[in-house]
Design a protein that fits this description.
alpha+beta, 9 helices, 53% helix
């Protein structure tokens, strides 16, 4: 039995995590049959999702999940692709995940109203008296991370300019194609679409959604990817979200 651990629909996205969405899509692309379950971050060494348990073996991180099944199945998502397309695919994936996800995360975690309606829900099971101090500690850590890697050192206008350049490059590559490299989806689509879905949600008050939605081809592309890979995806409810915040 193979189980993908992460989180289901939240923030008007198939998952609050682009990396969970990416792993989900790539498992489907590889033809892996799997079930979905809510992650317990305290139960795994990296304390991050997605992770997979395959016949008792734990595999963490979307890239290593993909590698595990490519090795196990003897087939890969790069099969049949040219060297140039492989290079382009990896470069686009790293661009989306290396910068856009950081800017997206900043918008969710560092803006007060967005945090309160979004990531604060992750801590709904913390007892009410302790919750303010826990939230402060977590956000202080996120702030330090943002400052350390550089995203927090930019002004909002600078962050949005960087995001606009990335999103514009993806729109140019897509052009009038159905998918990033042509008529059929590839592993690049799994990663890039997951990040763009996270940026484009209008659940949060952020200029990011407008930067994606101003490109008609990206809007159609995200609808295409969401319908294809998440139209029938089912996740159990996250128990913590059943509680009313105090």
């Amino acid at each position: 039995m193979i189980t993908l651990y992460g989180w289901g629909p939240m923030f008007d996205c198939p998952s609050p995590s682009p990396f969970v969405m990416k792993a989900d899509i790539q498992l489907q692309m590889l033809g892996v049959e799997f079930t979905r379950a809510i992650a317990d971050l305290n139960a795994v060494p990296k304390q991050k999702a997605p992770y997979v348990i395959d016949d008792g073996q734990l595999i963490e991180d979307s890239n290593f999940i993909r590698h595990h099944y490519e090795t196990k199945l003897g087939k890969g998502l790069y099969d049949g692709m040219s060297g140039k397309d492989i290079a382009l695919s990896w470069a686009m994936e790293r661009m989306a995940e290396g910068q856009l996800t950081k800017i997206m995360g900043y918008e969710r975690w560092m803006k007060e109203d967005n945090f309160n309606k979004g990531p604060a829900q992750f801590f709904a099971d913390v007892p009410a008296p302790a919750r303010p101090s826990v939230l402060k500690e977590v956000r202080d850590g996120v702030t330090a991370t943002n400052m350390g890697e550089g995203t927090g050192r930019f002004t909002e206008a600078e962050r949005m300019q960087l995001a606009d350049w990335d999103i514009g490059a993806i729109a140019l590559q897509l052009g009038d194609q159905d998918y990033l490299l042509g008529d059929a989806p590839t592993c690049a689509d799994a990663a890039v679409a997951a990040v763009l879905i996270s940026c484009a949600t209008e659940f949060f008050d952020t200029p990011l959604s407008g930067l994606v939605r101003k490109h008609d081809n990206l809007v159609a592309y995200l609808d295409r990817m969401t319908s294809r890979y998440f139209g029938h995806a089912t996740w159990p409810e996250w128990p913590a979200l059943e509680q009313e915040p105090a």
